[in-house]
Structure formats: structure tokens, C-alpha cells
Design goal:
The protein contains 31 helices and 14 strands. It is an alpha/beta fold. It binds 3 DNA strands through helix 3, helix 16, helix 17, helix 22 and strand 9. Keywords: DNA damage, DNA repair, DNA replication, DNA synthesis, DNA-binding, DNA-directed DNA polymerase, Lyase, Metal-binding, Nucleotidyltransferase, Nucleus, Transferase.
Length: 773
Amino acid sequence: MLDDALREKTAYFEQQELSDKDGGDMSLGDSYLNIGPVLADSEAMPPPKLVRKPSSFLGPTPKELQMSFGARGVKQPSSFRSESSKLERSATAPGTTTTKSFPATGLRQRPTSSPQAKVPERLKRTTSLPDMKVKNELPFYKRVGVIPRELKKSNAKPADNIKLEPEGRQVLRDKVVYFYPNNDTSMPRRMRIHKIIQLGAAWVRAWREDITHIMVDESYHTYSQVLRHLNKAGLPCREQRRIFLVKFDPYVPQCIQFGTLLDPSAGRFLVKGAPISNRTAVDTDHASQSSESQGSLQVKPSLRQLTAHDSQTHSTPTENSPQNVNSDPSHPPGSSQEIVKDSFIGDEPNESTDAYNDDLSQAIQETKAIAHLPLDEEEEEGPTSSIDHDSDSGTDDEIPEPPSKRLKLSTSTPAPPKGKSKGKGKAPSSTFQCMNPSGAASSANPNSRTIEILDQMCKYYDQMQDQWRTFAYRKAISTLRKQDTKITTAKEAAVLPFIGQRLADKIEEIVLTDRLRRLDSTRDDPTDQVLRLFLGVYGAGLAQASKWIQAGYRTLDDLTTKAKLTSSQKIGIEHYSDFAQRIPRTEVEAHGTTIKSALRTLDPTFSATIMGSYRRGAKDSGDIDIIITKPSASIAQLHSLVFKTLIPSLTSSGFLKCKLATSSRTDDGTKWHGVSCLPDSTTWRRLDLLLVPEEEMGAALLYFTGNDIFNRSIRLLASKKGMRLNQRGLYRDVVRGRNREKLNEGTLVEGRSERKIFEILGVPWREPGERIC
DNA sequence: GGGCAGCGCAC
DNA sequence: GTGCGC
DNA sequence: GCCC
């Protein structure tokens, strides 16, 4: 930020005895999917074939829609559902009534882009019933093989009641599998053994001639190791029978994924050092000789994914920006402003800080308990936030903060976030080792793969605007990040906080198969894709998107030409791709500078502060939030200047493009939501201006700094203490009715100082960069 | 089965 | 009052 | 999704 602004603000804070820091927004929904491919797909989407009953769609409320989301899956006790879940899934999206017609009519089709995909696949599979045979005769794995121990403890008894997959999904039916190493002492391997049994195979302990597959469970095992172990010179390969040596992963996971027995001789399944098969290594299911008819479906491994697109943030060079009135455009994320304020804060006697340390820790516990905040002083692993690109809902990638700085030293945490951005790679840890002084010990999180996949689920639900599930996943992921051992079983997972049975099952599935079918299934679902496409339109939510689908619209063009749109939605569609892109930090800054410059010429005593993820040090943001304030100014004054002068001025200059929602009332209108665009750019950005009177600055800073998880938890804490916290202040003596509706406003306790709000709530101070939960 | 924060604007 | 975004 |  600019020196001037800085000075101004510093003075302001000092004058007002504010000890706050700037904050950021909590952009909840600023990360939408990458729409590139979606758009493409949508173009290719076939005309609506949904059989719909017009009368039936009475317009479920979002709540109902979400409930329907919830309904799916609840009834899926098995951790291994696939096709069926798919059906349910697609059913959820738009009006529930239409859903049934989907599978029944068989009208659902893939986009023409993948003609080879056979439609009937899932339909077919859904018809397969859980195998009843088991009851009548000894299951194959007991007849032929050895029964592994149960998954519970290390010395559990034999698992004589393994629930097999429905026959139709037993892709390893009648196979005889030998593992290398071939015991069930290690839990992961025991799970794999269970898995192949569920898939219809048997596990044998000793070598025998009818073995069909040898599976190694680690990719570092080599062909020669296995031969040595078997004491053989080569794998037997008679005319009719051949023993296949494969890596369990990815062989079995992929067989599951494609619902068929894949060719084990395909290169990707081969064990290191194994001779390349002379047969063509096609990855189809030709190898399947099994009696069942699964061979029919050969699904093409079309792993197209929505996420592929990758918004390449085309950043607009800062230099180009008009302003520059300000001096240091290049200040580090930490922002000098913060530093200054920190020093101000630092003046507080340490004792006071220490004094409330006990209370703080108390509060931490409490807050944690209530809100699952990773308030852990010790090792909240920083920001880990970036499991992979694209942050989750709204929380933009934050630049982490060394864990070393604990809240306790509320004194002054040096300017935090280093401008260093974490690579978008998958292994988040690598980037942040610096944060773990412990060095070597701090290797990658053992659960990183699990987290990665759960995070994808989380993003999916975010796109679906299923806020509660998104919330739950984020909490669970947070928990998982704290584990220093790998969670491999559902049982293990279920005891952890915020991980229930259903997530635990998913975790086990991930560990076992390295994927979540639930995720795979949804990716290719055309209805899901359209739904997500529409949900990406600014101003459209679940209800609207579902109505559009219900009306038969499938592309953005459909909406433009046929649908009745609100003004926001029109803009949202026109600039769909703009709004879907992340805004590079430098550009956020440029927008902020433009505002500040204009403001300064109008009245130098006004100040503008960029909030949101920017304030938390994020390398890019979903939108731009700016708080405008002025010492001793009333809302009316703020409103007058901003709405009558600033906005018209910036609009005529071409910087502001349009408004989406603005306060109407002249007296206490406090917000302007619209769109801005730098002069040399064509990418429109979401810009929010917030007018805040000084007496509410603390609460506003807190609120708009986020992140959202942090906000929710601290609000929850407030309400638990009989108080109420919103962006205007902290109130006490709030009386609520039986339905929690508040019966009175309560009494204002504090609004001016962010820090005091923390204190009153008994929450240890956290710098903006530390409010990443 | 309800809560998971609570608010203001557009329609 | 509902839908939506913050 | 989880928790109470």
C-alpha cells in the first residue's frame, strides 16, 4: 500500500487506539471451478433429453435441494459404491422428480465428445444385486484360499465374514492371488487382501499352480526380487494359463474404476524389471477370461476432468496501472501497514499479554472444541492450505506463516507472509519445510494423498454450493493434517474429531484404492457438469441453476438466449470466465491503488484498505474487497462521498464497469458490489467496496479478514457466550427465542478495536496471516 | 432431526 | 418471503 | 458432511 495511506491509517489507528490489523475478506465462493473444459463440454452437450414433468418441479428450496444431496449416500452403507452412487448422484442435482427418469429412460448420454463410452455401463451395473449365493455356498475365498485376519487389530481373528461386492462388480472373480510379500501382518496389505476378496478373488498363502495373479504392494519391489522369493527362474506361462505379476496399485484400483478386469500385462501394471509382454499392451479388458460377462463394458479411461483447465492467470503488469501515486507498490505481502501497527501493538506490556495467557489457552481449547479451529498453538501446520491449486471455497491460497509464531507472542509477529508462493504441486510439504525447523522429521504429511483427494471432494461440494458438506470436509481435512501417522483404516479415522463413519469409510477407500469412486463418478456426469457450470454464474445459486436445468438449458448460450436473467446473472454470464479466474496479488494491489488514488484526490482523510485474502497474504484472490473509512465520519458522509463522487468518477474513467448490488438507502448504505477492470486489461474483476465508520472498524476488520472458517468459529464462540458478533461489533446480553431468533439487539460491547474483541471473547490474538483455518 | 452466523440487497 | 452473496 |  501506499505510504500515504499507510501513514494516514496509522495515524488513524493511533488516534483511535485501534490495535487492529487489516484484514481480509473471507471469500466464500471465490473459487469456482475452472470452466474452460466445462464450457467446452457444455457446448458439446447434447440437447436436453431429460424427461421432465413440468408440474413436478415446484421449486425445491435450496435447503430441500441440499437435503436431497444429503439423502444420497446416506443409504449407501458400503464403502464401495459406484454405479449406484452415480445414479443417486445425478439424481440429486436438479429437481428430484426428474431424477428417476434418468436411469430408467436411459436417456442420459455422455457428451458426444466421448463416443466410445458406452452408456449402458452403469445402468447395467445397477441391476446387479448383492450376491445371494454367499449364503448358500462357501464363498470362493474360503473354498480356495486362506482367510485373512480382520481389519481390526493386528492380532485379530480370521475375517470369515467378508462382505463381497455384488457379483457384477467382482472384477477379480475366481482369481487366485498371491501377494508379495505374502502375509497379512501389515495393515495396508491386509486391506488389499480384503479388497481382492471382496472383488471375488481368493488369497493363498503358499505357492500353488492355480495362482492367477501375483500382486506386489509397493512399486519399489522388483521382478527379480519376486522370482528370488519364489525360487523360480521365471513366471510359469503355459499355453492356456499364465500367471500375471502386477502392482496391486494401480492394477486393482483401475480394474475397479473401469469395472472390468484389465489386461495385467499393460505396461503401467508391470513390476519393475519385469519383461515387457510381447503382446500388445492394450489396456482393455481382453484378458478377462472369467466366466462372467463383464467384458462387455469397456470403458475408455477417459480421465478428463474438469479441473484440467487451469486458469492461467494472466496478470496485468502493475506498472500499467494508472495510479502510482503511491510509493511502494512493491511492498511485501506483510504490508508495512501491518508492521507499523504491530509495533504499535507491541507497545503493550508483555505482562498483559502473558497475563491472559492462561485464559487464552483456555479460550483456545474452547474455541477448538467449539469450532475446531486449528488454533493449536504448537503445530498448526501452517497453511498447508495448498494441497493443490485452487484453494477451496473462497479461501484463497494463503501464504503461510511460519508456525513458529504463536499467538502467545501477541507482541509482534513480524510481517508475516513471505511473498513466496507455494508451488501448486501436490506435495505441499516440500514448499514449506522452512516452516518446520524440525527439519528432516517434517517430511510430507503421511496422509497427503488422502488429504488431496478429500480436498477434491471438498471443492466439488463447494462448487455444488453444499456449504455444510464443504464445511465438514474442511474440518476433516484439517484434522487429518494434524496426524503424524498415516491413517489407513476407517476405524482409525473414525475416532478422530470431525471424522465420522462416512468420511472414515472414504478415507479407507482412498488409502486402499488411491481414489474415490464417488469423485470419479461425478466428474463425467453431464448433469453434474451442467449444474456446476450454472452454479458458476454470479447471481445464480442452487435453486436457479436447477431451474435452468429443469427448463432444459445446457449451455451458457442457452441461458443468454432463452432464460430470464437478473442483471447480475447477465453480467455473470458475460464475464463467466473473467470471474472464474483468480486475481494475481499484484493486480489486486493495482485495483486497490486506483481506488486509493481517486479517494485521495477527493478527500485525503479517507483511507482505503484492501481486505480479504489479500490481507492474509494470499498470492491471488477471488475478488477484491476494500474497506473505505474516515475518522469521525458518519456513514452518511462516507456514503455521500463514495456514491456521489468516487463511484461516478471511477465509472466515467472506465475503471468501474458496473454495479451488481449496492446499498440503496442513503443513510446507512454501506456497500457497493460491482466490477472493475484495469485500463490495460480486458478481464473484469469482482470488486466490493465497504463503507465502515470508525467505530465499527475493529469488527469490520475482523469480519472481512476472515477466513470464513475463522469467522464462523469466532462468531460461534461469541454466541455461546451470550454475545453476538457481526461486522459491526460485538454485542452482549443478546436474548434469543426458542428458535434462536434474536429478540433484542443486545448491547454493543466493542466495535472499534479488533484486538479488544479478541480479548473480550478470550481468544488469543492472531495476525491476519494466522487466521487461516 | 436440527444446527452449523447473520446480514442486506435483488427480485 | 426467497435466493444469493458476503 | 459432523455433532449433539
